[in-house]
Design brief:
The chain is mostly helical and about 190 residues long. Helices cover about 50% and strands about 5% of the residues. The chain is built from seven helices and two strands, in the order H-H-H-H-E-E-H-H-H.
Length: about 190
């Protein structure tokens, strides 16, 4: 196994984002499941199903499969979203454990990416979605600012602010105060109501 430099290995950041997401999921009460989230198309339950589906998609891609074959949001009917998330995460981490997986190219619906690029992008997606969960449920734990800073940097470099609108994955950028905290700036950049 080849040693991958920490600065280019997205797995530690993805792991931190998943830890933070797991913590938020474990704090969710049944009464929270129907609450709306800042991610307009999801209530809390549907967002949880989406997060589980994303983990499964990444596992399928890591095994050389087609992520479009994974139902998103997942159609699990569960009372244990934390358990479903942990199980899907364990599969993902096992599949992406070999360093060689990071340098391979994977074909996705929107183009080809290396494993390194793919896991990096999804670390940032989980960082945004944990803010969605926290905002929807009034989550009482502090979110990792370093994750938000990395995600904001990634989104500003990779997701143009121009040309957003109906039918796209991101709403127009929302204006926030210059001194807004990093998560608020991140949420605003990806078009969440803040």
């Amino acid at each position: 196994m080849t040693e991958v430099e920490a600065t280019t290995d997205p797995r530690p950041r993805l792991s931190a984002a998943l830890d933070q997401t797991q913590y938020a999921i474990d704090a969710i009460e049944d009464a929270d499941l129907g609450r709306p989230t800042p991610c307009a198309e999801y209530d809390v339950r549907t967002l949880l199903a989406h997060l589980v589906a994303v983990l499964r998609k990444l596992a399928v891609v890591g095994n050389g499969g087609d992520m479009s074959q994974v139902k998103d949001p997942a159609d699990d009917h569960t009372d244990d979203w934390g358990g479903a998330f942990r199980a899907a995460r364990a599969d993902l981490e096992q599949i992406w454990a070999p360093d060689s997986a990071l340098g391979k190219s994977y074909t996705l619906a929107w183009g080809a990416m290396t494993g390194r690029e793919l896991l990096d992008a999804y670390a940032h997606e989980f960082t945004v979605h944990v803010w969605d969960l926290s905002r929807a449920t009034g989550g009482g734990h502090e979110l990792d600012r370093a994750l938000a800073e990395a995600a904001l940097d990634w989104y500003t470099r990779n997701v143009p602010a121009e040309g957003r609108g109906e039918g796209g994955p991101f709403a127009p950028v929302v204006t926030v105060a210059d001194d807004a905290d990093t998560y608020t700036r991140l949420a605003a950049f990806v078009g969440r109501p803040v």
